[in-house]
Amino acid sequence: MKIDQLYPVDQKDADKLTDLLTQCFAEDPLYCQLIPQKTMRKRLLPGLFQCDLDELFQTCHVYADSPEMNGIIIVSDETEPQNGVRRRIVEMFASWKTAALLLEEDPSCKTLWNFIRGQEYLNSEWTEDLGEAPRLHVVYFAVRPSKRGQGVASRLMKAVLAFADENGMEVSLETHNQRNLEIYRHYGFHLFEVVKKHFPLKQFCMVRPSEAAQGTLAAS
Fold this sequence. Notes:
- Residues 51-211 form the N-acetyltransferase domain.
- Keywords: Transferase.
- The chain is an alpha+beta fold.
- It has one domain (7-219): Aminopeptidase (3-Layer(aba) Sandwich).
- Helix content is 47%, strand content 18%.
- It contains nine helices and seven strands.
- Helix 1 crosses helix 3.
- The longest helix has 22 residues, at 38-59.
């Protein structure tokens, strides 16, 4: 997967990317639920995102709007061949590092238990119900708070959607913020299902059909 309009992010940008994600998700409903204490959340998020990035750089495509990284979109191309054993090892190692970090910060295991109970919100398993159509999954989509409203989000999302349309792919994503639903509907996403398990938190699972499927729907 290659999107020439965007800046490809790699390991050399990891610190800058960790800072961006920490800023963007400090008050996200999911992380507020998993780590209710604000001071603990502030301490934990950078390390948690570093654990995520160890896995994501190996399994996903990471793009920013520019080298300054005002916004980020991290995409998994589900059509790419996967080494199942290798991917599982990478995921297990990331999970182990995350658990160790959570236990170090909170030896009571309460925060770790929140993450265990919240797996349905973290692993995107709902996409298994989407069938076999070629698909991209947006893992992270975020814009630095100070740069919102300046077209950064539109540039990132439109580039990914253009790639999907050129390659006949649908696009999936999830959000835990109901205010985001209209934004994603503007880009052609529709609500597929709502996940709510163990917490008073809703995960809104959204899908944008491929361009061909959109044409079929419009004609029917």
